What does this fold into?
Amino acid sequence: MKLDNIRLCVTKYKECFLFYHDILGLNLLLANETSTYADTGSSKVSLFNREFMAQAIGESNLPFESKSMDSFALIFEVDEVERKYKELQKKGVTFIAEQTVREDWGIKVSHFRDPGGNLIEIYESLEK
It folds into this structure.
């Protein structure tokens, strides 16, 4: 079995589309009114309208949203966290916390959310 892509089922499809394309600069492979596929270089990320996905799998009767802790994070490796942090801030990204060196993880890291509330991490390895 081979993992093809990670699909984010989002509530704010248009805002998320613009965020991943315009702010994060992901290379689009396919895009339409309900789904988008983007190449990150080493893997693919797809965006899907959450309501459309629920209908497709017969679960449109479930609650649309609920408050809970994050169940996943999209993680992007970058050359320099500080440079990418400043670049994204200039584009309007609000970070959850300042950049942090996590010796126990072996990385420098920072976290933020997309317009749909999905957790995103950027990191650089401490071993260079």
